[in-house]
Amino acid sequence: xxxxxxxxxxxxxxxxxxxxxxxxxxxxxxxxxxxxxxxxxxxxxxxxxxxxxxxxxxxxxxxxxxxxxxxxxxxxxxxxxxxxxxxxxxxxxxxxxxxxxxxxxxxxxxxxxxxxxxxxxxxxxxxxxxxxxxxxxxxxxxxxxxxxxxxxxxxxxxxxxxxxxxxxxxxxxxxxxxxxxxxxxxxxxxxxxxxxxxxxxxxxxxxxxxxxxxxxxxxxxxxxxxxxxxxxxxxxxxxxxx
Length: 242
Hints:
about 240 residues; mainly alpha; about 0% strand
């Protein structure tokens, strides 16, 4: 929503996005070789509008009208995130002329730089940081009290952001209505830096490696659990009869 205010939305979900058909076709349409086809077509459409001196808006709807089902296990999550990382690397290679290019206005000076630094470079920087920290620890060159302060400040900052998100959801939409759902999410805020986030770093680096070593990347079978039909029928008001 913040990005929408300055017309700098970084990506539009391929499964949940709506695109202007005429602009999409004129910009070149979907690239069958892309591993991030949703971001690729958004970038091409925005660049097309800028190259033709036309105004455009990429907007974000605050309330979800539909959802996609998340990966049900680690194997499927690995496939999804690795492909996303491969696609991200591909985006910055294919559209490299846009990055830091003032001719592409906000796309080149805001959207692409932010994605490049905080999305593409983030796993690389974090991995190098971990290796460097281990190296310094083995050498005995770590200022442990200061390292502890830095860790706690960053850790509790992340927890604060997570709690603000839960509070915001509670006041705005209440997507998570039961105490069990909210409590589970709250616990995960404390665990995410140690379990989920390291996995994302690994999958990201794996995706970059696959792309830059020209390893063929395919979606594979993206299994989904689906919905429990019995629960759906029980909770669906259309199924209730008097």
